[in-house]
Design goal:
The protein is an alpha+beta fold and 625 residues long. It has 2 domains: 13-232, Potassium Channel Kv1.1, Chain A, CATH 3.30.710; 265-336 and 354-482 and 493-604, Neuraminidase. A hairpin with a 4-residue loop joins strand 32 and strand 33. Residues 32-99 form the BTB domain.
């Protein structure tokens, strides 16, 4: 006989059956003992069910209030359709949340104190925060004292401040919330003039009512960060009677030294994805977890970017024109499934956005298909995931899907004309260009159609591409015997094509040969085209794969058709990246990242433990670590 205190597992079938019976009793109006009245709509219910899910009804029916003895209870400030969703949740456990219902549902759940519904609505709203609604979400979070929603929305407002301060929702912010935003150190602005303009727009939106806040609002502007021209014209346009008050208020509140806003500290960085795949130590290859690291050419420093969730590998990467970083697809080690090689890998449909302030990845709505190494591009206001390697067969490699950031939804568009595993994509002039072998197709978003463009003279795969102005650069890769649509042949050779460069003129629909990248023997795929330092650059490895790595950045001069060494990257700064990495460019905040201090690898040291080691022909003292 079991002890009286022994816990028994819950009978899930009975729990489901009980809910089904309660729902049946509700629908058939059996044994109901209270009727909720909203306007002209009646909801016959059971007090016990309502009290079980709502603290509001529990207090009403069990706290000795007059309603506890009434058979009809009037509810005010509640929408009938929204109340129906809450009642359905009480009887079924299912909460029907959508973009159109979530805000009134959140308000009603807060009023009725339906805690679980409130949490579900909060999580839904946090996930749906975007540049178009973040100001409204900030106000909602403040109104209902929801710190998680308020903080998440505020971070988006700070991140997208150059866009959101012109929205009507921003101009209607309360005085308190406005001060909270304008005083933030985390505003993503490159100039303080943006903050000044935002403050003036808010004041001018209703100058008669808001003139009392003139001093408090303008005192949030960091005057010393403004240009001299702006400072001289600072008080032009202000109401004459208030100028002296504003002057006194501003200068009394001004600190001696201003702290730069976060956006003023941004640095353009190369972001390396799946770097450090392996590293030789005493002639033995030691596997490392794929990592994401950043290199700042400006500061010549390396930083650690937060690794993708679940150590995702083979992801697609994108940095949008407004500097948002996304990763999509990839593969993970299947939990509780291990093989002799260390684990079973499975492709996934994941999609994440980088919260650059927190250096964390935020999950967004997954893609419709699992994809390995999809090409991600930003075009005409949307994100596209194109193809991918060997997931779901040829049909899946052809599929293309589009992400709507406002709706947080994916949808399918016209598939690629052919299935390729070696393609790369760029966006230019509101079109998407897919390049592989000697072919190129152009996708027109507004007609959802693919068009074949001019054919290249060379057939190369694993190449890199970058678009700049009216030109598309196709760089490096391996020369392939596959030409045109004959994708049944899978042979390719190096042939020094890692240094080949072809340029496509969008206006002329023509390809031309360009100057080759300065050659380095056997660099594999370590030649990457990027838009960096206000032009097209090449990041490339300068040494043989088995040698100690050295990297360089070359920049292209269009007028002279030549590549020149823009910046060598010291091996003391950027060590081994492996061979399977790819890279992109984004502007990140050094203060939000962890600086990666260089540590010399063990194989540089002599076995006798000497305090010096040889580096480029000179003896270097072992640094303190």
């Amino acid at each position: 006989m079991s002890g009286l205190g022994e816990r028994r597992p819950v009978n899930a079938d009975y729990a489901v059956s009980l809910l089904e019976q309660l729902k049946f009793f509700y629908e058939q109006k059996l044994l109901t003992d209270v009727v909720l009245l909203v306007d002209d709509t009646e909801f016959p219910c059971h007090k016990m069910v309502l009290a079980a899910c709502s603290s509001y009804f529990r207090a009403m029916f069990m706290g000795g209030l007059s309603e506890s003895k009434q058979t009809h209870v009037h509810l005010r400030n509640v929408d009938a359709a929204t109340l129906q969703i809450i009642i359905t949740y009480a009887y079924t456990g299912h909460l029907a949340i959508s973009d159109s219902t979530v805000e009134p549902l959140y308000e009603t759940a807060c009023f009725l104190q339906v805690e679980d519904a409130l949490l579900q609505c909060r999580d839904y709203l946090v996930k749906k925060i975007n540049p178009e609604n973040c100001v409204r979400m900030l106000s909602i979070g403040d109104l209902f004292s929801c710190s998680e929603l308020k903080q998440s929305a505020k971070r988006m407002v700070e991140h997208k401040f150059p866009v959101v301060y012109r929205q009507d929702a921003f101009l209607q912010l309360s005085h308190e919330l406005l001060l909270d935003v304008l005083s933030s150190d985390n505003l993503n602005v490159e100039k303080e003039e943006t903050v000044r303009e935002a403050a003036m727009l808010w004041l001018e939106y209703n100058m008669e009512a808001r003139s009392q806040h003139l001093s408090s609002v303008l005192s949030q502007i960091r005057i010393d960060a403004l240009s001299e021209v702006t400072q001289r014209a600072w008080f032009q346009g202000l109401p004459p009677n208030d100028k002296s008050v504003v002057v006194q208020g501003l200068y009394k509140s001004m600190p001696k030294f201003f702290k730069p806003r976060l956006g003023m500290t941004k640095e353009e960085m190369l972001i390396f994805v799946e770097a450090l795949s392996e590293m030789p130590v005493m002639n033995v290859m030691m596997p490392l977890v794929p990592a994401m690291v950043c290199y700042s050419p400006q500061a010549e420093k390396v930083y650690k970017l937060r690794n993708p969730p679940r150590n995702l590998q083979k992801v697609g990467t994108l940095v949008t024109p407004d500097n948002d970083v996304f990763i999509a697809g990839g593969e993970v080690v299947l939990e509780n499934a291990f093989s002799h090689s260390g684990g079973l890998l499975v492709a996934v449909d994941s999609f994440f956005w980088l919260d650059a302030q927190q250096n964390t990845w935020v999950a967004k709505t997954p893609m419709l298909c699992a994809r390995l190494k999809p090409s991600l591009v930003y075009c005409d206001g949307c994100i596209y995931a194109v193809g991918g390697d060997n997931v779901g067969g040829e049909l899946n490699r052809r599929t293309v899907e589009r992400y709507d950031r406002v709706k947080d939804e994916w949808s399918m568009v016209s598939p690629l004309p052919l299935a390729w595993s070696w393609s790369t994509c760029v966006a230019a002039h509101d079109c998407i260009y897919v390049l592989t072998l000697n072919l190129m197709y152009c996708y027109l978003p507004r007609t959802d159609a693919w068009v074949e463009m001019a054919v290249r003279k060379t057939s190369r795969c694993y190449a890199s591409a970058a678009a700049f102005g009216d030109l598309i650069f196709y760089v490096g890769g391996l020369r392939s015997s596959v030409r045109g649509t004959d994708t049944s042949i899978r042979s390719y050779s190096q042939d020094n094509s890692a240094h080949d460069v072809e340029i496509y003129d969008i206006n002329k629909n023509e390809w031309r040969q360009a100057a080759n990248v300065p050659a380095t023997p056997d660099v594999g795929h370590c030649v990457h085209a990027v838009v960096l330092l206000d032009g097209v650059c090449i990041f490339k490895r300068e040494t043989h794969i088995n040698d100690r790595p050295k990297y360089s950045i070359y920049k292209y001069e269009v007028e002279l058709d030549r590549w020149y060494l823009r910046q060598p990257v010291s091996e003391r700064v950027l060590w081994e990246l492996g061979t399977g990495f790819h890279c992109t460019v984004g502007k990140l905040y050094p203060s939000c990242l962890e600086e990666s201090a260089w540590k010399p690898p063990a194989y540089l040291f002599s076995p006798d433990g000497a305090e010096e080691f040889n580096m480029d022909g000179e003896l270097v003292a072992l640094p303190l670590v």
